[in-house]
Amino acid sequence: MSSGKSITYSSTRGCPSQKSISFRTAVMRGLAHDRGLFVPDSFPTVTPEELESWRNLSYADLATEVIAKFVKDDEVPRDVLEGIVKKSCGAFRSAEVTPLVKVEGHYVLELFHGPTFAFKDVALQMLGNFFEYFLSTGSNEGRLAVLGATSGDTGSAAIYGLRGKKGVDCIILYPKGRVSEIQERQMTTVPDDNIHCVAIDGTFDDCQDIVKASFANQEFRDRVKLGAVNSINWCRVLAQTTYYFWSYFRVTDAEKDVKLVNFSVPTGNFGDILAGYYSKRMGLPVGDLIVATNENDILHRFFTKGEYHREDIQATISPSMDICVSSNFERYLYHLAGDDSTTLANWMSAFESTGKLTISGKMLDKARADFKSARADTDNTLKIIKRYNSDHEYMLCPHSAVGVDAVHQLNTANSATVCLATAHFAKFGDACSMAVDPLPAIPKQLSKLWKMQIRSSNCPNDAKVVQAFMEKRIEERIAKHAARGERKKVLKNVVFVSAAVGALAMAVAALRRR
Description:
This protein is an alpha/beta fold. It has helices at 23-29, 48-53, 59-68, 78-89, 120-136, 153-162, 181-188, 204-216, 218-224, 234-254, 271-282, 298-305, 329-336, 341-354, 361-370, 378-392, 398-409, 429-432, 444-447, 463-513, and strands at 9-11, 38-40, 100-103, 106-110, 144-149, 168-175, 195-200, 226-228, 261-266, 286-293, 307-309, 356-358, 372-375, 417-421, 457-459.
């Protein structure tokens, strides 16, 4: 039993109606109605003794303990929580869920053993199962329209987490021609009729802007029962905290002299490394948190110069990080402002109008104390991929290689450091083949995608057009299911009548024999 009260959540932008929200509401709502992000009203702590008592737990049991620090029986009964977590972990090919390996003196946390071979499976399998539980127990009148934007991996992970879920429509927007072919095929080959993939004529940021505009449209939001699956959804950040605890235990099991564990995280939307920051706030002994970026380096520029200045996106070989505005960064800025929603709202308003946010002095010193950063360009990324393959027969995807290059730049490639490997190299075969040729064989789960039929739609970069498309597809699916239900009802009645007629005929025949 998880006794006590669950943690509540409030918007970073301070709207009174968006304060002290329950976990259920925060998950189902996704984005606060004032366009802010939900953050915990308080942080639970993990004592050194409690932490040590978790050391030998399975991944699923550890995840249950970590999540239960935030979610008590008043929100989700403990046995239900355990079931959700175990079902989510059961979708992974590794019994450890996120195994840790040592390469060139540092550790690599393999986060690509889920259904879509990317780290986002960890959170999105969990989120899909929470959605299913909340819908089945009264939320949203049993209906949810999930709208998400993807730069590659979120889309397929969301689709695999939500496919076939009762009452859920999943609409994923992705920038046309700006995701890898295998990423697109992972999304568009899923046949379930509650899945809708939409290629947008624009960038990932354009897709993300459509999502934000849709949530800001109250009439549309309420009419379709809109929900969020992007990393703005608090559940995703919470689910990801577990693998920081897990990898801390595995490192300190093997390295008895290590007291603090460093993490290097390939960073785009800031959700993954934010989970590490929150783990540290809970009491996990974390050393450096390293923000690793590619040429789209708005975060690196912030942590080195205090300049969060929007620039045009550069297309790179690590497309999931080709982002010039990190949607989850608002949560960290809120904490950097001393949890002051007025300051945060003013910052975001200025940034949204000018594309610039600048900090200096003690504020910048604090940010630098919280995070280190490094920037890896395409040339360095390819060199790392080539070297790790030739020296260690270990393949890194371009995003993971950015994180590895960062620890070499910062001289922290040692036994106290974990680099997060966010995707399997086969998802980015074209990029990896620029460094390694021929490539190792790819998993059969991915190679078979080229034999499957694809299903996708195209829309212009226009929120109203996308919203109209969503409503049309949702209505079509509901009508189809209603018709299917009627057919089943008719068939059931036919079967019942046939059985009754058969029984009557048998009774008449029996009477005649008498």
